[in-house]
Amino acid sequence: MIQSLNSSNVGAYLRCGEQFRRRYIEGEIIPPGIALGRGRGIHKASEINFKQKIVTKVDLPEDDLTDAARDEYVHTFRNKGVHLARYEMPSKVKLLNHGLNETVRLTRLYRRQVAPKVKPVDTEGFISVDIGVDLPLKGRLDVEEGDGIRDLKGASRSWPKGRAGKEIQPAIYTMLFLKKRGIHPTFIYDVLVALQDDEKHQVISDDVTRKKLKATLAVIYRVMRSIESGVFNPCDPTSWVCSERFCGYYLTCPYVGNGHQAWI
Asked: Which of 33, 203, 40, 197 is nearest to 105 (CA)?
């Protein structure tokens, strides 16, 4: 059974109850996909940079950060394998190298356009909040500034207008920040987009209102009650999540069910 709630496992339940059950209840760990490895690499560079910047007030050199991102990306797949759809398997090496190149490109973009603007007071700070259900709400905030939160994302395409407002993460992080600091924070996504021949940095703010906090709490309470009741609904089969490429459980899912492993 899970020990806490956070933006990752609540989001996973909302995307697909069966995927949540396999991962968080049964403990079936699927090898990471390339996008996850890219994200881990970028976040590792950011974490290393901001931890020392809190003390020195100066960003690390670009090459130091790209080396850290590259090492984290390689480490992610070295012993765990990589999740790929069957049709992607013949291109495994090419896809991994492409992901590594994107990781380096986006880390350079982070160093040039994000890091210099941020004045961190804490990074990867762990917070736990009692929200009145059996499990605590926990999380680690990417980076905290004086009165706000910034969260770093890597992406293969630009975020459309309105997406940030539909994410559950800003509201959950706002609850955690309120617990830690006692003030209502601003929330900003720094989205690093790897285009085919270029990179783009999107700065997207989300206005987490009291109404949104109340609605998010209602969602979390319902998710908790459903987990306690053993209710794990399948994904909408028309959703992009319900596919061999994006779900490591797809080919062994009882709601899809052809009995093959979907990872290598």
From this structure: 197
